[in-house]
Specification:
Layout (H helix, E strand, L loop, with lengths): L2 E10 L2 E11 L4 E5 L6 H8 L7 E6 L2 E2 L5 H7 E4 L11 H6 L14 H13 L15 H14 L4 E5 L7 H13 L3 E5 L3 H7 L2 E6 L2 E6 L1 H4 L2 H8 L3 E6 L2 E7 L8
Parallel strand pairs: 3-8, 3-9, 6-7, 7-8
Antiparallel strand pairs: 1-2, 1-4, 4-5, 9-10, 11-12
Helix pairs in contact: 4-5
Length: 258
């Protein structure tokens, strides 16, 4: 396993954000994390990335405690694209993506041609190469979101963790971004708002509800009408789509759970 989370608990005052969550992330897979607002998705991703530590439990990266790594060591292996990752600094799109090279740099290893090449390649992957000279403050929310993903790609990690990466993107760029994540030779963990995106692109889906793991497995096995009704409080119907995975159609309200 690339990542293993054991009994993760995260508290905020008297509120429990995560309650004993255990799961694994397999090498090369696309794991989608879904759940209602406040279910613990962002808390889980921040702990899996090493950005925050749990109040109880631990995370292992390829068998070694993630907490034993420095922030720089962890950042060389894991990139995090946060939901609200903004900057007030005046910089170009290229400079913003170049920040992804920081974990690889030191006094003895300054920014060089290899780093510039990684930045250029990351911009091209998210179709932002033509905007490399644009000032950050002049970019739209969707353009900034694509640059956040490019920054993670420039970091050249083994694992990319994304917190609702399709925010601010139009439908074309939502689908293109998720298809890209699916194709990358990386391990992907992404909190997704759209259950049909999880059904379509993920290898496995983890469902969170009130800080607890409600389900983990193949999308069609986990995103059942009954579980969607229980967790999201909406009526859902799965529509077969030939050889592809089913589509989810939603109603206004969920039937009473029996």
């Amino acid at each position: 396993m690339m990542l293993e989370a054991h009994e993760l608990t995260r508290l905020a005052g008297r509120r429990t954000l995560l309650d004993g969550v255990s799961l694994d992330v397999r090498a090369g897979e696309f794991l989608a994390v879904v759940g209602p607002n406040g279910s613990g998705k962002s808390s889980l991703l921040s702990i899996l990335s090493g950005l925050r530590t749990p109040d109880r439990g631990h995370v292992c990266l390829e068998g070694a405690p993630l907490a034993s790594l420095s922030r720089r060591q962890a950042a060389q292996r894991i990139a995090l694209v946060q939901q609200q990752a903004e900057t007030e600094q005046h910089m170009t799109a290229w400079d913003a993506v170049a920040l992804g090279r920081t974990p690889h740099l030191s006094l003895l290893r300054p920014f060089g041609p290899t780093d510039a090449k990684a930045v250029d390649a990351a911009l091209d992957v998210v179709d932002m190469g033509a905007m490399r000279a644009r000032q950050w403050q002049t970019l739209s929310g969707g353009e900034r979101q694509r640059l956040h993903v490019a920054r993670a790609l420039a970091q050249e990690p083994d694992i990319i963790i994304l917190d609702e990466p399709t925010n601010h993107l139009d439908i074309q760029h939502q689908l293109e971004l998720l298809a890209l994540m699916r194709r990358l030779p990386k391990t992907i963990v992404a909190a997704l708002h759209d259950l049909n995106h999880a059904m379509t692109f993920a290898d496995r889906v983890a469902v969170l509800q009130q800080g607890r793991l409600e389900g983990l497995g193949a999308p069609a096995d986990v995103l059942t009408a009954r579980r969607i009704a229980k967790v999201f409080k909406v009526e859902a119907r799965l529509i077969p789509d030939g050889a592809a995975r089913p589509l989810i159609a939603f109603g206004v309200s969920a039937p009473a759970a029996g």
